[in-house]
Amino acid sequence: MHFKTSVAALASISALAAAQAPSIDQWTQQEINNGTAWTEVTQIASENQIYNVGTRGDVSCQYGNAKVRKEFRHMSNADRKAFTDAATCLMKTPPQHMRADQAKNYPGVKSRHDEYVATHINMTMNIHATADFLAWHRNFIWHYESDLKTLCGYEGTLPYWNWALDAAAPQDSPLFNGDEYSMGSNGEYISGRSDTYLYTQGINMPPGTGGGCVNSGPFKSVQLHLGPLDLPNAENVNSNYQYNPRCLKRDFNSFFSNSYNTISNVTELVLESIYLEDFQDRMQGYASGDPFGVHGGGHWTVGGDASDFHSSPNDPLFFLHHGMIDYIWTTWQNLDIYRRQLIIKGTSTLGNSPPSAEMTLDDMIPFGFVTGDVEFRKLMDTFGDAYCYRYE
Ligand SMILES: [Cu+2]
């Protein structure tokens, strides 16, 4: 049965009685498909967040003073340019954590940005389909945001990219129009390509709308140094940290966005996943019937360097995509905050292969060249002791 409940009524019920998360039956399929449901779901989640944070008493991080992360297209031109200036600055800033004796083993690490890429390469098999996938990436992008501030003078917050707004034709998104206020253009179009079979996911991928170098906008002349390691139809490097200077490539592909990253995909993910196992598996494409999920789908929608499993942080867009992933997690958590704030499930190896111990909130999680180890528990709450931010 489908019926409609007002957002205000749902939010107040939820806040007062700590009711269970709203059910997908509360919206019609049309409301799910046209974005009405998602708008209301995020409103309920933020009402709950306001209530929850408000009960914490005299702590320094309050809803009103938390940093606000916004969708890139909703930022001013000046703020967008400030962000991309800082992102390119980080690609020219020397490494900060790598010691001289380590550097010889990492010939491709030339910049602070490369330290993020190398860390992700190093840890790929321990941060995807693990208990800490969501938490690890949350902290990874938070440090990126804080490096933009401390190393490159950025005064804003990390933007996110709501790919669902662009699912019909990501190549036509205002984010990628290639002007100086954009996130840079598509890759140059390479014609005459045929379908590619992706073995891991068992699907046939049609060619995208780009494929070559990003040729206009803020990232047109950046030079990447690491990877790719596992891209189809590319010259992959032979070793993880090889120096491989080249342009940034993209290949926007609506095949993925239309199948895995629509507004109904994200709404159904959040409302139909009652248990964390379902939520994190489905998000990453480890649930049946959806080999990508919104996480994998977002990477493949961009294509090129952003779709390389290991070295995807090469593309600054990685951090905006993972901002959206983090926003989805906080939304899911806040729909039933008392049950979901501190819940984790899984081990520290990809799909538990090879088998490893169940992770706990007391575990210290490593961040390679990004920063020192952080206790898992500290990564669970955007208003907790490590952070103070929210999405809007
Ligand atoms: Cu990742």
TrEMBL record:
<feature type="domain" description="Tyrosinase copper-binding">
    <location>
        <begin position="315"/>
        <end position="326"/>
    </location>
</feature>
<feature type="signal peptide">
    <location>
        <begin position="1"/>
        <end position="19"/>
    </location>
</feature>
<dbReference type="InterPro" id="IPR050316">
    <property type="entry name" value="Tyrosinase/Hemocyanin"/>
</dbReference>
<keyword id="KW-0479">Metal-binding</keyword>
<keyword id="KW-0732">Signal</keyword>
<dbReference type="InterPro" id="IPR002227">
    <property type="entry name" value="Tyrosinase_Cu-bd"/>
</dbReference>
<dbReference type="InterPro" id="IPR008922">
    <property type="entry name" value="Di-copper_centre_dom_sf"/>
</dbReference>
<dbReference type="GO" id="GO:0046872">
    <property type="term" value="F:metal ion binding"/>
</dbReference>
<protein>
    <submittedName>
        <fullName>Di-copper centre-containing protein</fullName>
    </submittedName>
</protein>
<dbReference type="Pfam" id="PF00264">
    <property type="entry name" value="Tyrosinase"/>
</dbReference>
<keyword id="KW-0560">Oxidoreductase</keyword>
<dbReference type="GO" id="GO:0016491">
    <property type="term" value="F:oxidoreductase activity"/>
</dbReference>
